[in-house]
Inverse folding.
């Protein structure tokens, strides 16, 4: 993928995926400023690692979700370190009123999904990760496996275990997705 060499290709890639990446991020953070920053960080990481994408290993969406997951996880680790060392970090980038309103609307829209994520918090990390990517982010099991760097059969087993553990706990729409196995 030559996103870092062709501005037009990067713009098209960005436009195709920015909404999905924002939805992914706002389900995991509640601060609209941080969500906007992490979304931007995901696409910066895409530019930095575009040379690592291999179509034979999975779709560009799976690759992108893997990057987004790494960026969000890195932020959580960084925030935990900063919190232990110095308390809450300040100095986040300012957003204008329109940007803030759009991000708050997106966070409100994803609030129901955060409830499902809270129900899924009881699951082991591996099972939760597969379930999130398949049921919430609408990836196929194959794409989820590629995003997580695991085998497809492992992803299927984890998805089955997660669904079985959550039956009756979370809303069925959050756990089961039509056509996704």
């Amino acid at each position: 993928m030559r996103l870092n060499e062709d501005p037009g290709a990067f713009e098209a890639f960005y436009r195709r995926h920015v909404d999905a990446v924002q939805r992914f991020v706002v389900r995991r953070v509640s601060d609209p400023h941080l969500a906007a920053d992490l979304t931007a960080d995901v696409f910066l990481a895409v530019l930095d690692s575009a040379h690592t994408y291999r179509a034979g290993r999975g779709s560009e969406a799976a690759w992108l979700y893997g990057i987004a997951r790494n960026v969000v996880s890195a932020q959580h680790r960084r925030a935990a370190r900063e919190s232990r060392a110095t308390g809450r970090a300040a100095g986040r980038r300012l957003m204008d009123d329109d940007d803030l309103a759009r991000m708050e609307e997106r966070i409100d829209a994803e609030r129901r999904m955060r409830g499902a994520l809270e129900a899924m918090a009881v699951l082991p990390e591996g099972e939760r990760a597969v379930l999130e990517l398949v049921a919430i982010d609408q990836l196929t099991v194959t794409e989820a496996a590629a995003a997580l760097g695991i085998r497809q059969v492992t992803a299927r087993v984890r998805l089955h275990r997660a669904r079985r553990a959550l039956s009756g706990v979370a809303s069925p729409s959050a756990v089961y997705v039509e056509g996704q196995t």
Summary: The mean pLDDT is 83. Residues 24 and 137 are 7 Å apart (CA to CA). The longest helix spans residues 60-86.
